[in-house]
Q: What sequence folds into this?
């Protein structure tokens, strides 16, 4: 397929998904495009169908664009915030129903995590309903099956609530109770929201979007939030206030909520800071965290050599960046290189112990230094048979 055709398909994919052109991996898109070319009988036919937004072609392009990096209870602070800040309000109001939305749910880990959390912290009489939506049908098929391996159950995502029938199984299944509270639906975030919700998770999604498309999504999400509801983002998704919503404490968690009038006090709400020009969204690939996100995209697409090169490049520029060290150790471990993994883990431990336990380490997810220390200790002890 010609480069001109690939460039045209990239433009179509960007407009359809909201992803910025810079966040679309050309190698992934070319692979899908050439498969379509063989299936549909030529480059011209692929371009024609893409121009007309043929569902089969757009689904394939969306798969090429999709990142899909997710796991259970990712950024556990968000789930603890739901339990500690929202649940008491729901209890005092004797809520009889709660609606939540995992927007951009990928293969369902976040939606099921949210459902298990709400089922445990909501009033006993409340009916819990969680909707997971994604642009890729293949992701939704995997989500509905509800079976997950170790890659979806990582050390950085502690099992805060019961979500599996047998959490120790090599491939664990989601409990029937959690399944019953969760459903999945195809949805494009650029379109109006599929309902009104008390809780919305849209995390680590907008970081890949162009600023213009991100603003469209923010408007759709804000309009879908019920009074008293909360909207959760990843650490790099949004950097400016959202009209009509308050920025909750702690501010680094990136939680915006439509606070009930009686909760508008200085002790519980931090007013959003004034807008800071010029750009409301961080540009990709300008700092170690952004380059780390790019490496995660390459890991997800199977290009682990390129991901490793990017992680090493981070460490050459930012020697103390713990998340890249841990990511390298995990890459070595998955490749069966236990000696190299052990070396990296010991370095993670050494650097983590030089920090205060509760000191927040910036990365794709802000985590305390104690997390990195515990991850390294757990691995090293397992290697010694302890």
A:
């Amino acid at each position: 397929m010609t480069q001109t055709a690939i460039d045209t398909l990239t433009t179509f994919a960007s407009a359809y998904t909201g992803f910025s052109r810079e966040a679309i991996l050309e190698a992934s898109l070319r692979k899908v495009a050439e498969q379509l070319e063989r299936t549909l009988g030529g480059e011209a036919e692929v371009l024609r169908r893409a121009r007309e937004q043929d569902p089969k072609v757009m689904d394939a392009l969306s798969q090429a664009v999709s990142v899909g990096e997710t796991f259970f209870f990712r950024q556990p602070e968000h789930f603890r915030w739901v339990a500690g800040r929202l649940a008491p309000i729901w209890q005092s109001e004797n809520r009889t129903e709660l609606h939540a939305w995992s927007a951009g749910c990928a293969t369902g880990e976040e939606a099921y995590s949210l459902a298990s959390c709400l089922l445990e912290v909501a009033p006993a009489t409340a009916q819990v309903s969680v909707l997971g939506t994604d642009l890729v049908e293949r992701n939704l098929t995997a989500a509905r099956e509800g079976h997950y391996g170790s890659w979806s159950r990582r050390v950085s995502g502690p099992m805060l609530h019961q979500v599996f029938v047998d959490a120790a199984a090599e491939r664990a299944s989601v409990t029937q109770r959690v399944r019953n509270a969760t459903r999945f639906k195809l949805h494009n975030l650029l379109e109006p929201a599929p309902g009104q919700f008390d809780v919305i998770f849209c995390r680590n999604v907008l970081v890949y979007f162009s600023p213009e498309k991100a603003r469209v999504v923010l408007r759709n999400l804000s309009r879908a939030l019920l009074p008293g509801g909360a909207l959760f983002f990843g650490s790099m998704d949004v950097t400016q206030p959202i009209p009509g919503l308050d920025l909750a404490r702690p501010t680094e968690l990136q939680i915006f909520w439509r606070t009930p009038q009686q909760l508008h006090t200085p002790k519980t709400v931090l007013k959003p800071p004034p807008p800071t020009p010029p750009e409301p969204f961080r540009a990709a690939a300008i700092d170690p965290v952004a380059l780390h996100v790019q490496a995660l995209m390459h890991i997800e697409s199977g290009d682990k050599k390129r991901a490793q090169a990017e992680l090493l490049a981070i460490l050459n520029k930012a020697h103390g960046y713990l998340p890249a060290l841990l990511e390298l150790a995990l890459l070595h471990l998955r490749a069966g290189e236990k000696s190299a993994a052990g070396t990296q883990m010991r370095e993670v431990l050494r650097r983590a112990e030089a920090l205060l336990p509760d000191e927040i380490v910036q990365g794709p997810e802000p985590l305390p230094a104690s997390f990195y220390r515990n991850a390294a200790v757990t691995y090293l002890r397992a290697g010694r048979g302890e």
